[in-house]
Amino acid sequence: MVQNSFPSPISVNAEELACERGGRPIFEGISFSLSGGEVLAIVGPNGTGKSSLLRMIAGLLFPVAGSVTIKAGTLEEGFLHFLAYGDGLRSVFTVEENLKLWSRIYGGDVGGEAIYDALEEVGLAHAMHLPARALSTGQRRRAGLARLVLSKRPVWLLDEPTSGLDRDGEAVLGGLMRTHLDAGGAIIAATHLTLPVPPTRTLELQ
Ligand SMILES: Nc1ncnc2c1ncn2[C@@H]1O[C@H](COP(=O)(O)OP(=O)(O)OP(=O)(O)O)[C@@H](O)[C@H]1O
């Protein structure tokens, strides 16, 4: 039994979702359900709609049929974190300034110490005062992981989360995922690669 550290019990239910992009059908009849402590992996060849499905779950793309219901707190509290390939970093700001900005968006407005701790957790504390433009691809991905740490949202949507990470970065991601699941969070990840934490179930798009 998972201990839920989040304010509400967590569930994500999708029923008979259908997706069109540019007027072209991408998938249909997609249903799944997920609870806190569980990981859903979305797999399938390029162009089958993995990212589109994540965007649909996030409410960024409307289904042409079906529905998604997420129970995980209130809109005001914020219940989703979408980690996509775009890292959301402003290049002229330092890593610390970027994370401070994001922490305000997450409603936390945390101090430098919490930002340092989040960066240390993802192996990026040494780069805290560098402008984001100076980060390597993998370091930018790690900064994205630091955002995950700071956001404290119950449902994580991860698009190719291991992409660009070295072996140590994958281990860091695995640690964050396990901590999140142990706290009762839920994770939905679109991936071509093996996730550092085995999925509870897998949804294959074709
Ligand atoms: N903005 C858009 N307008 C029109 N078609 C789009 C748009 N975005 C994506 N598509 C199309 O939707 C389909 C699904 O794209 P999506 O990015 O969801 O696939 P994916 O499974 O995540 O692919 P990959 O494995 O390459 O990341 C593709 O055929 C793509 O060309």
Automatic annotation (TrEMBL):
A Pfam family reported for this protein in Swiss-Prot or TrEMBL: ABC_tran
Protein's name in the database: Heme exporter protein A
Gene3D superfamilies cross-referenced by the UniProt entry: P-loop containing nucleotide triphosphate hydrolases
InterPro entries hit by this protein: AAA+_ATPase, ABC_transporter-like_ATP-bd, ABC_transptr_haem_export_CcmA, P-loop_NTPase
Keyword ATP-binding in annotation: yes
Annotated SMART domains: AAA (SM00382)
ATP-binding as UniProt keyword: yes
Domain of life: Bacteria
Record-annotated ABC transporter domain positions: 12-205
Function of the protein: Involved in beta-(1-->2)glucan export. Transmembrane domains (TMD) form a pore in the inner membrane and the ATP-binding domain (NBD) is responsible for energy generation.
Keyword field: ATP-binding, Cytochrome c-type biogenesis, Membrane, Nucleotide-binding, Translocase, Transport
